[in-house]
Amino acid sequence: MTTRQNSSVLFIMGVSGSGKTHIGQLLAKALDISFIDADDYHSQSSIDKMSTGIPLTDADRYPWLDRLHQIAQRHLDIGCVIACSALKASYRQRLSTDISQKVSWIYLKGDFDIIYTRMQHRKDHFMGAEMLKSQFDTMEEPEDALVVNIEDSAEAIVSTIKNKLNMKAEIGVIGMGVMGKSLSRNLARNGFSIALYNRHVDGLEEDVAANFKSAHSELVSALAFDDLESFVESLASPRKILLMVNAGAAVDAVIQSLIDYLDPEDIILDAGNSHYLETNRRLQMLESKGIYFIGTGVSGGEKGALLGPSIMPSGVYEAYQKVEQYLTTIAAKDSNQEPCCTYVGRQGSGHFVKMIHNGIEYAEMQLLAECYAILKNQGMTNPQMADTMEAWKPDCDSYLLGITIDILRKKEAGSYLLDQVLDQAANKGTGKWATSTVADSGEAATMIPTALFARYLSAFKTKRQEAEALFTSNKQSNSISTSVLRDAYQFARIINHHQGFSLIDSVSAEHDWNVNLSEIARIWSEGCIIKSDLIKQLVNTFKQGGSIMFNTPWSTTLSQGYASIQSVVIESVQSQLHTPCLSEALSYFNGMKIGSGSANLIQAQRDYFGAHTYKRIDDPKGKSHHSDWTTTTD
Ligand code: NAP
Question: What ranges in 442-481 are assigned the alpha helix state H?
Fold first, then answer.
């Protein structure tokens, strides 16, 4: 961490009139830390002496220096600027005893004539030439201080000090929303010096970053801005800027407003849920300006982002290497304490795998909702359902199963909160994008679209109520045993993961991304929403090569769970339940394990009405054939 700020107490020293107080105040303001004027801490006897023109002795000064030393010690964790003449080496030594590693000295140096002239122009202050000269005589110039020429403007001096003390932030975060806040705190907690920015909107969004900073102790050394140029200026080169804004137009708007302030080799990371094709476009546009762009998926929600998310970065590898330490440090750790962050591949491959992660998540959530529907249909209470699912943990534990159990148990004012939640599922778009990608890819990843359409169907609440009144009759409860349901659920999850990972593999091959499926399973084993025991085991499955369905132990689990999913689907249909993902898992599996299917009829129909041709099984050369389907020969 080359540019990390490691001095928390900054002593500004120099003779009277060198500008210690003014510069110190400005510097403290720029760094958003406290300012302490040493002159405020003299004892009354010293003040009395000075006011009558009697110079202080070392004995007078020692208690004062010791008090300042205590103040410095108290500020080690939160930082401060202390303006103190500290003319002698022994004074400075006394001030930094035992804390020298955390103290920096800034010496404001100027000619006698310049300072004397300045003093004469001060309204309430007059120092005779003799007194100033005695200060110059006393001054033992420091060897280890940052020496700053006082002839520059105060602003230039502050900027010089910040630059020379390497006080630029290592990485900046734009967007102090749910995720930006959590990631910022995570970065700061891990010791990175960060700059925070949120846009300013008069009357609506004011001092958002500064207010957020002051609400959290770990952000004490963070720099906070609502002026974009100052934010960019506060970053060490090459600049690393992490965007955590809403996907879509906001990402383009922020990039456009940043471009003018950036230099070649600076790096923008988009950590929101952007569409991977948009990431490809942005990457190309920024590449033409020499700016690197890293599209990175981040999963784990607000808590994960704070404590350790799963991170899926992609783009130019050399750029990734420059941000790797930040991402791997804040990421969740897998069971071997390795970071749940890996370089996914070129272009927008990181956002692509995040999108499929979300697609798998949609189907996993839907499967749990269907199990809930089946158990509820049996007349189970919420805590009984929670207990049932709790008992499934040894076989199919996952984050989503865990939160479902919590949700089932949650009470509010004596009744179960879940029962008060309207049954209309919303979505933010990644499931829709994943579904479009499934269609474009030619892969039969049917569970993601099925889960998406189940959400869409749920939205038609009024129509569903009308249809219920019109069509439903003889509602009956099912008698599926909880162990059979568990096996069916696990069966469907295996199919869901098989489809999702096969989709990643196929699209990766199409784009020549070379995505390592075992690594993806590993970084999803902790920190993300679909973390589960199943995902952990997939790390080794993919090391063996091949896909899930055709690998042990999954092929065995599918064979063993087949009877269960069959009976669950049959009973659900008989009970008039809506269980599309459980049904689809069975349907897909049946379709996959039919060596000779019915698509010969589809091909014949296509050739009949559109002369689209077909292949014959009795033609080993695989030529295309066309027939007149209206005439028959023997
Ligand atoms: P959020 O709470 O709504 O915050 C969005 C942030 O973007 C706010 O700071 C907002 O600033 C800023 N913003 C919006 N439009 C902007 C514009 N035109 N210019 C500048 N700033 C703009 O959203 P979030 O939950 O943090 O999500 C951020 C991204 O992470 C999204 O892409 C989301 O899909 C993704 N994500 C979210 C989660 C999650 O669990 N929430 C998990 C993984 C990924 P103002 O406050 O000034 O409006």
Answer: 447-459, 461-471
Instruction: For residues 149 and 253, state if they share a domain.
Output: no
The string of pLDDT tens digits covering residues 30-55 is 777 899 999 999 999 999 888 887 88
User: CATH code at 418?
Assistant: 1.10.1040.10
Among 243, 244, 278, residue to substitute to test ligand 1 (most atoms within 8 Å of Cβ): 244
Angle between helices 430-441 and 349-377 (to 10 degrees): 110
Tokens 């004539």 correspond to 113
Same-domain status, 188 and 313: yes
Burial 134-150 (b: 16+ CB within 10 A, else e): ebeeebeebeebbebeb
Query: How far does residue 178's CA lie from ligand 1's centre (Å)?
Result: 7
Amino acid 134: pLDDT? 87
Identify the domain containing residue 25 by its residue range: 9-164
The H-or-E segment that residue 582 falls in is helix 580-592
CA 280 – CA 347 distance, rounded (Å): 5
Query: Is 140 tagged catalytic?
Result: no
Question: Model confidence over 480-496: pLDDT tens digits?
Answer: 999 999 999 999 999 99
Q: 3-state class of 191 per DSSP?
A: coil
Same domain, 194 and 108: no
Spatial separation of the C-alpha atoms in residues 197 and 450, rounded to whole Å: 40
Answer whether residue 358 is part of any domain: no
State both tokens at 284.
């190309």
Indicate if 44 and 89 belong to the same structural domain. yes
Grouping H, G, I as helix, E, B as strand and the rest as coil, residue 138 is: helix
Instruction: Report d(CA 179, CA 302) in Å as an integer.
Output: 6
Sign of the CA dihedral 13, 17, 22, 27?
Answer: negative
DSSP notation for 206-218 = -SHHHHHHHT-GG
Helix 249-259 to helix 276-287 angle (10° resolution) is 10
The question of whether 584 is a catalytic residue gets the answer no
Regarding whether 454 and 325 lie in a shared domain, the answer is no
User: Would you mind telling me the total number of residues written for the chain in this entry?
Assistant: 634
Alpha-carbon distance 9 to 101, whole Å?
A: 10
Q: Determine if ligand 1 sits within 6 Å of the CB of residue 397.
A: no
Instruction: State the DSSP code for 273.
Output: -
Q: How far is the CA of 147 from the centre of ligand 1 (A)?
A: 43
Which is nearest to 158 in space by CA: 256, 35, 326?
35
Give me ligand 1 centre to Cα 272, in Å. Answer: 7
Is 180 within the bounds of a domain?
Answer: yes
Domain boundary among 291, 313, 347: 347
* Total-model pTM: 0.80
Structure letter (DSSP) for residue 305: H
Residues 6+ apart with CB under 8 A from 87: 13, 15, 135, 138, 139, 140
For ligand 1, whether the C-beta of 302 sits within 6 Å is: yes
The one-letter amino acid code at 44 reads: Q
Query: Which residues of the chain, if any, have pLDDT below 50?
Result: 1-6
Which alpha helices (H) appear in 52-147, and where do they start and end? 58-74, 89-95, 112-121, 129-138
Number of domains in the chain: 4
Q: Is the CB of 176 under 6 A from ligand 1?
A: yes
CA nearest ligand 1 atom 30, residue: 272
Which amino acid appears at position 301 of this protein?
G
Q: What is the pLDDT of residue 124?
A: 60
Q: Which of 347, 378, 397 is the last residue of a domain?
A: 347
Give a yes or no: residue 4 inside a domain.
no
